[in-house]
Amino acid sequence: MKLVRVRITSFRSVKEPVTLNVDPKITVLIGANDHGKTNLLEAIRALNKDRGLKADDENWDLIGQDKLRVDFDFVLDESEISQLREILNPPDAEKKNTEKAGEEDQALPPMIEPPRLVTFSVQGPGDTVGVLDKEDAIPDAAANLLLKFLPRVEIFTSSTTQITDGVNLAQVEDPSQEFMQGIFRYAGIWETRKSLFAQNPASAKRLEKASEEFTRKIRAEWVQGEDLTFKFQHAGTNGNQIELLIRDPAVSDRFVRPSERSSGFSAFFQLKMRLLARTEANPAYSYLYLFDEPGTSLHPSGQVNLQRVFERLSEADQVIYATHSLFMINHNRPERNRVISKGTGGTKIDQKPYLKNWRAVRDSLGLIFAGNFFIADTTLLVEGESDAMYLGALLAAFDRAEFIDVDLNLFSVQWPGNSRDFEPMARLMLEEGRTVVSLVDGDKSGSEVNKKLEKLNAQLVAGRVQGRTPVSTLQIERNQSIEDLLPLREKYLEAVLDATEELIVGGYRELADGVVMDRPTLLAQLSRDKGNETLGRHVEKVASDWFKVKDRSKKEGISKLAIARNYCAQLETTDLKSRPGVALPDMLRTLVGRLALDTKVSKKAVFEASEARH
Q: Are residues 559 and 508 in contact, defined by beta-carbon separation less than 8 angstroms?
């Protein structure tokens, strides 16, 4: 029996009726916090007779309107249909019908064919699941059989319980010790546990075999544990405790305790062991596993591996999990993903978020599936790769110094690669639904880029290009580049000298005859009046005379990217707020206004974070 649909009405944050289409194997609920993902999982858990619906499940705006209900549509497999067919067409009834047909020479009545789609329903506070039979066509015996076919729903939340390293017999049998119960079951010593809490040759040998079995299973199922060896041993008084230790190749002098491992290790262990303990303690026809924000403490590679664990679980039982992690989204099977959002009408479900370039997923989590993962709603396009580094560092530095208040988590700076690709890159960003702002130098090249963007904007207004708003264009003042906007110019010039030393020490370049690596002398040369040149161009010309070349016509300066790397490293450790005379450049102030980024405590963020579950 496979769950194919859940129809929910007036349940917690679900105000207007919604339908959740369920994948035969794995369904992923994607969405920001407080949008209703957990509520949907709780609605599914109402399928259990020991859960049902409760008075406080009713949507606050609809209390007393008798609308609270959850309907479940299941598809039966061939074995279940065959069993149901036997109940609907019992052999004795068939015999009586045959005798009657022979006596009266009448044809047998047609065999009753079981339905392939069956609906179960929970209606109102206090109700538990029952077969929805509008026409009373399903006899009680068939209804009871269908109820036996129902999977048991088990929900697992992100647990913060401290991992236990060892237990005695009373502790391991305590219902709250689900984690350690799973450990014992996984090692195959749960059934014989009572004989293990006294140290003797037989119990020691049994723990040795359990250690081997536990290690084998973990290595097979968890790539991050493939180098670990696990050991059960007696502890306490006469072995009245059993503890679990880990041999880690990275630690040569001692065993490591599970409680000493990382939060990622803890997250995986708790999930795996609790799953085993729960299902073995509650045997059922099948299971429907619900996971609320699984793997939140795992490294991205661990989260990907957790998806593989779910894939194995789904071979026998269905899995539904809620997440807001980029790495828990199913990229291989986009049809499994659902986007959960909440507005004035309550929680809503987008069943096909992979349409329109994953727009719903991107809007929900601030990502796209073309290019980089970590892309947000607003993108700044710049002319050079070093410009992208400078602007990201500048916005972060001025934000730290409280000159501005911007949330940079949903913001990206992109360098198209060259001026020819600037307009096509802007077009691509617009088609993905992003707000696009451009910043170019105050030279001829920058002016040419702006002319192309103006043509693109004209096409956008005419409806020939997809996008929400035109590209907002900014051009630095004439004869200036991004380097002219940098605060603490002395640090920029020091970054030039740092990059120079890297080239010389690394053996990539040689100083020209007569040039000495004397920082004060070279700094004085960089500090000369630059005239009508941009600061970046001025530095490039001055520095090009420092290096030995075979052909004077092929002189080259220092990589702008190398200079930017050194400057940004210094800026990251500098408190602009404490430096006298530092102010936010007018161009950056204008840029921040054009970007219109949310503040770190924007009204929207505060509202969503403070919303109650209803």
A: no
Q: Copy the structure tokens of residue 424.
A: 């096509």
**Which CATH number is 1-76+115-151+308-371 given?**
3.40.50
Give the C-alpha separation, 296 to 374, whole Å: 18
Q: Any idea what the Cα angle at residue 258 is, between residues 252 and 262, rounded to 5°? A: 85
Residues 6 or more apart in contact with residue 430 via CB below 8 angstroms: 436, 456, 460, 465, 466, 467, 468, 471
What pLDDT does 306 receive?
78
The model's pLDDT over 162-186, given as tens digits with 9 standing for 90+, comes to 678 999 999 999 988 888 999 999 9
CB 119 within 8 A of CB 130: no
How buried is residue 572: exposed, middle or buried, by Cβ count under 10 Å (0-12/13-18/19+)?
exposed
User: Tell me, what amino acid is at 19?
Assistant: T
CB atoms under 10 Å from CB of 174, counted, come to: 11
**Of 482, 476, 437, 456, whose CA–CA distance to 596 is shortest?**
437
The b-or-e profile of 188-205 (16+ CB within 10 A means b, else e) is ebbeebeebbebeeebee
Q: In this structure, what are the phi and psi dihedrals at residue 423, rounded to the nearest 5 degrees?
A: -65, -45
CB 475 within 8 A of CB 446: yes
- CA geometry: angle 472, 478, 484, nearest 5 deg: 90
Domain ranges of the chain: 1-76+115-151+308-371, 166-283, 378-484+585-595, 489-573
One fold for 1-76+115-151+308-371 and 378-484+585-595: yes
> 2.30.30, 3.40.50, 3.40.210, 3.40.600: which CATH number matches 378-484+585-595?
3.40.50
Tabulate helix, strand, coil % of the chain (nearest 5): 45, 15, 40
Question: With bands split at pLDDT 50, 70 and 90, how would you rate the model's confidence at 245?
Answer: very high
Query: Token pair of 523, please?
Result: 């700094």
Q: Can you tell me the distance from the alpha carbon of 9 to that of 2, in angstroms, rounded to the nearest whole number?
A: 21
Tokens at residue 268, please?
């995986």
Averaged pLDDT, 249-259: 88
Structure tokens at 245: 């230790």
**What gap in Å lies between CA 427 and CA 421, rounded to an integer?**
10
Q: Is the pTM of this model over 0.90?
A: no
Strands in 411-414's sheet, in edge-to-edge order, are 411-414, 378-382, 435-440, 472-475
Alpha helices in 253-331, H assignment, sequence order: 263-281, 300-313
Type of residue at 83: Q
Q: What is the DSSP string of 117-185?
A: EEEEEEESTT---EE--TT--S-HHHHHHHHHHSPEEEEEE---PPPPSEEEHHHHTSTT-HHHHHHHH
pLDDT 10s digits, 526-551: 999 888 888 998 999 999 989 988 77
> At 455, which helix (H) or strand (E)?
helix 444-461
Torsion angle of alpha carbons 264, 266, 267, 272, nearest 10°? 130
- What does each C-alpha distance from 391 to 379, 382, 470 come to in angstroms? 12, 9, 21
End-to-end CA, the chain: 32
